[in-house]
Write a structure and sequence with these properties.
- It is a single chain.
- With about 900 residues, the protein is of the alpha/beta class.
- It has four domains: about 160 residues, Calcium-transporting ATPase, cytoplasmic transduction domain A (Distorted Sandwich); about 280 residues, Calcium-transporting ATPase, transmembrane domain (Up-down Bundle); about 150 residues, HAD superfamily/HAD-like (Rossmann fold, 3-Layer(aba) Sandwich); about 180 residues, Calcium-transporting ATPase, cytoplasmic domain N.
- Helix content is about 50%, strand content about 15%.
- Strands 10, 11, 12, 13, 14, 15, 16, 17 and 18 form a nine-stranded mixed beta sheet that branches. The protein has an eight-stranded mixed beta sheet with strand order 8-24-23-22-9-19-21-20, with helices on both faces. Strands 1, 2, 3, 4, 5, 6 and 7 form a seven-stranded antiparallel beta sheet that branches.
- The longest helix has about 40 residues.
């Protein structure tokens, strides 16, 4: 084995070489101390790997299970429950304490299981960087893991490869790369060895291949000049990690509610205990009353049912092939009023197709995918045939490469030829290819030379203005007509009209020469103009219409050309035909805008040529206006914006690892149509949580009022602490859980999104909660006094009557949670089978508690007789009717408030 050159490691540039695009390839290799013909030797590669580290991006470390478990105890309400359990233990209320701890454990188990599933699902997504690559070491071609690449490695790439590091091109043959994941530009970029200016922007460094991009065609050799976090991809990853990661609106609302509950429980409990002791009541009795107040004030079921409601929403999303990284993210998407979406591959199929052919004397418009029949004007036949022939010959793709990273433009031209019955294999067999003049980004031209019977055909395609300028004739009927300046101007005008419709325009031409050494781009015969479009997904327009019907606006933010972006916006219904795109190249700093300019930008629906930094600024601009912003994307350049948005939605099939890690929701099938479903799901979840919170609070407030009034009025405790806990765990939790897993109202997508500042509980909800609590309080106290003083059935039996009355009234109260405007008999509550199941379960548990001796003894329940049962039923029904009346009054009161 031949040893590599001697290397002093202190002289090496580390894992990143400065401005390699501005140096000749030989100079770069010399500075990296590598023999291009042999590559590094194995020992030197190991030394560099040990010194400079592996070729890895900074990734979110797999989250430990115990961290996920600990996070379940960070809820303020869980902390309150734990405090209540400690207090119960200190004062000898062991049963109460054990029951509260059981609730905490149940909540932790549910939250842990659901969040662990989401985290592990995300960790199982595919990686962005190719896992293995070909390198030359010791003069041999080896396949090594990309993590073992080091600066100075000579890497061999070809069409379909994903670039494993930042590479300086040494040699290239028809080499092009799709850099859309990095720059947002959907057209592949030609690559070659020649150096470029030091000040050239990233998108114009044609001698560099960037980590994470894809080779669309050709082959080449390149030397590694940057690895891992020192690559351009690594720089964006670092920017992603630095973006803000805030709590979602629902999390903030529940935190605020928890703080209110904490203040209320402490204040009320302190007042009751103080008043009781000051008036000479038994101290131990007052301490027990204080514990009862804590139990009554805190809705133990809230963390459980809220977690389950969110988890069920996550499972519904998973059934639509969406992974939710955080449970509350589903709700946040449901509150979204604005979606910023990229174009290529999200709204479109990322597959170019020829839609129009313009030749002298007319044009052919192509629709659908069917083969073209023979009904074509004979006068256009010669020009059409020549256009089809040239576009098929001047091509180096195959239709088999369509799903393997092949250039979508080349594939589109082959599909165009097939529609006219022309296959490249057969055409090349008739006109064998002798050589190719690869596409040049400067000239914007490509040519291939084909020979048959001693005659050489040069097939050319390229930018219309360049091809037209190089043409002296144009095909027209059976003859070629000369092109003068007037005719050339007419062809340019035609191409501009096609471009104005959003199509990418390509000109095709040819000439006959004597040999394959002739200059390809002189004295051409122009055949026609091809208009190509990237078709929108068939289901996108309906999805956008559904969003619009729900009051959610869609804005296109893309790195593509303005005309193309506007055309797609028109096609999918984002904007009207007279809409103009705001060009990112002329966009000022958004943080320095005046009010009028900010308003103009905020009302735009299409942004083109937008940089990653401008995406961040746009999101901040919209959020500053109080909008809840969702951002969709798939490329590396989308990742910072995905993290910055209120909700980031990444495309999992074609999306980069960085984008998926930055997002809150990943669509595994890349279907934009999933977004309206997610919005509906999010709205339903928020509505369900609002209903269950309203239900729980009204039940708990009634319990607080019953205990407080019983103590202050000196009539005793109508409800005992363990009875309160039983109510909270049974008649509160199970109906609330049923509310949380409901499908939501039928009109959920026919109302505008909630204002970002709207609280979890509106004024109308608070009035409704208060009215229901008053009704249940008066009904329960009335039943208690009626049993004790009217029926004379004893204190224990009277407490049992009040317990059963409140339990029954709470179960009936679930029907008051229907959406406004729905009927009392047919609504999302009566149509929810979980509600009926919860009522049956709670009724059975109440029957067991009242009839099974052991359970009755623990809860201190006594027989109440037939009159007691009648009193319970009458009082609970009256309470239900009063609660319905208070619900109607609450709506009118809030409307006039």
């Amino acid at each position: 084995m031949v040893a590599g050159p001697e290397v002093r490691h202190e002289d090496l540039p580390g894992s990143r070489l400065q401005t390699p695009w501005a140096r000749e390839a030989s100079e770069v290799a010399r500075e990296l101390a590598v023999d291009i013909e042999r590559g590094l030797n194995a020992a030197e590669a190991r030394r560099r790997l040990q010194r400079f580290g592996g070729n890895r991006l900074q990734e979110a470390r797999p989250e430990r299970w115990w961290r996920i478990l600990l996070r379940q105890g960070q809820s303020l309400i869980v902390v309150l429950l734990a405090a209540a359990a400690v207090a119960a233990f200190l004062f000898g209320e062991t049963l109460e304490a054990a029951a509260i701890l059981a609730v905490i454990a149940l909540n932790a188990a549910i939250g842990f299981a659901t969040e662990l599933r989401a985290v592990r699902s995300m960790e199982a997504l595919g990686r962005l960087v190719a896992r293995r690559t070909r390198v030359r070491r010791d003069g041999r071609i080896l396949v090594v893991p990309v993590e073992q690449l080091v600066s100075g490695d000579v890497v061999l790439v070809e069409g379909g490869d994903r670039v494993p590091a930042d590479l300086r091109v040494l040699a290239a043959s028809k080499l092009e790369a799709d850099e859309s994941a990095l720059t947002g530009e959907s057209v592949p970029v030609a690559k070659g060895p020649p150096a470029v200016a030091a000040e050239a922007p990233l998108a114009e460094r044609t001698c560099l291949l960037y980590s994470g991009t894809v080779i669309t065609r050709g082959s080449g050799e390149a030397v590694v000049v940057a690895t891992g976090m020192n690559t351009e991809l690594g720089a964006i990853v670092e920017m992603v990690h630095g973006a803000a990661d805030e709590k979602t609106p629902l999390e903030r609302r529940l935190d605020r509610l928890g703080r209110v509950l904490l203040a209320a429980s402490v204040a009320i409990g302190a007042v009751l205990v103080g008043v009781g002791i000051a008036t000479g009541r038994d101290v131990l009795l007052m301490v027990e009353t204080g514990i009862a107040m804590i139990v009554a004030a805190i809705p133990e079921g809230l963390p459980v049912v809220a977690t389950i409601a969110l988890a069920r929403g996550m499972r519904r999303m998973a059934q639509r092939r969406a992974i939710v990284r955080r449970l509350a993210a589903v709700e946040t998407l449901g509150s979204t009023g604005l979606i910023l979406t990229d174009k290529t591959g999200t709204l479109t199929e990322n597959r170019l197709a020829v839609r129009e052919l313009l030749v002298s004397g007319g044009r052919v418009v192509l629709t659908g995918e069917a083969a073209t029949d023979g009904a074509i004007d004979p006068r256009l036949r010669e020009a059409i045939d020549a256009s089809v022939r040239v576009s098929t010959l001047c091509n180096n793709a195959t239709l088999a490469s369509e799903d393997n990273g092949g250039d979508p433009l080349e594939v589109a031209l082959l599909r165009f030829g097939r529609r006219f019955g022309v296959e490249r294999e057969a055409l090349v067999a008739d006109w064998p290819e002798r050589r190719e003049e690869a596409f040049d980004a400067d000239t914007r031209l490509m040519a291939t030379f084909h020979e048959r019977s001693g005659e050489v055909l040069v097939a050319v395609k390229g930018a219309p203005e360049v091809v037209v300028a190089a043409s002296t004739h144009a095909t027209s009927g059976a003859h070629d007509e000369p092109l003068d300046e007037t005719a050339r101007a007419l062809w340019i005008e035609r191409s501009e009209r096609m471009a104005a419709s959003g199509m990418r325009v390509l000109a095709v031409a040819s000439k006959r020469v004597c040999g394959d050494t002739d200059a390809p781009y002189e004295r051409l015969t122009l055949h026609g103009l091809l208009g190509l479009e990237d078709p929108p997904r068939t289901d996108v327009r309906a999805a956008i219409d559904a969003c619009r019907g729900a009051g959610v606006e869609t804005v296109i933010v893309t790195g593509d050309q303005p005309q193309t972006a506007v055309a797609i916006a028109n096609a999918v219904g984002v904007a009207a035909e007279d809409t103009a795109a705001i060009d990112g190249s002329s966009l000022p700093r958004l943080d320095k805008l005046g009010d009028r300019e900010a308003e103009r930008i905020a009302t735009a629906r299409v942004f083109a040529r937008v940089t990653p930094r401008q995406k961040l600024e746009l999101i901040r601009l919209f959020r500053a206006q109080g909008r809840v912003v969702a951002m969709t994307g798939d490329g590396v350049n989308d990742a910072p914006a995905l993290r910055e948005a209120d909700i980031g939605v990444a495309m999992g099939r074609r999306g980069t690892q960085v984008a998926c890690e930055a997002a809150d929701i990943v669509l595994q099938d890349d279907a934009f149509a999933t977004i309206p479903f997610a919005i509906a799901e999010g709205r339903a979840i928020f509505s369900n949580i609002r209903k269950l919170v309203s239900y729980l609070l009204s039940c708990n407030l009634s319990e607080i009022a019953i205990v407080s009034l019983g103590t202050l009025l000196g009539i005793g405790l109508p409800l005992l602490p363990l009875q309160l806990l039983f109510l909270n765990l049974v008649t509160d939790v199970f109906p609330a859980l049923a509310l949380g897993v409901g499908r939501g109202a039928a009109h959920v997508m026919k109302t505008p999104p909630r204002p970002a500042s709207e609280p979890l509980l509106t004024a109308e909800r608070w009035w409704s909660i208060a009215g229901a609590a008053v009704a249940m309080t008066l009904g329960t106290l009335g039943a208690y006094l009626g049993a004790e003083r009217g029926l004379g059935i004893g204190s224990d039996a009277a407490v049992t009557v009040s317990f059963l009355t409140l339990a029954t009234a709470q179960l009936l109260h679930v029907f008051h949670q229907r959406a406004a405007g729905s009927g009392p008999l047919r609504n999302e509550i009566t149509g929810n089978p979980w509600v009926w199941g919860a009522l049956a379960l709670c009724g059975g548990l109440l029957a067991i508690a009242g009839t099974v001796p052991g359970a009755a003894a623990v809860l201190h329940l006594a027989p109440i007789g037939g009159r007691g049962v009648a009193l319970v039923l009458g009082a609970s029904v009256a309470t239900h009717l009063a609660g319905g009346l208070s619900r109607g009054l609450a709506g009118r009161t809030a409307a006039h408030a």
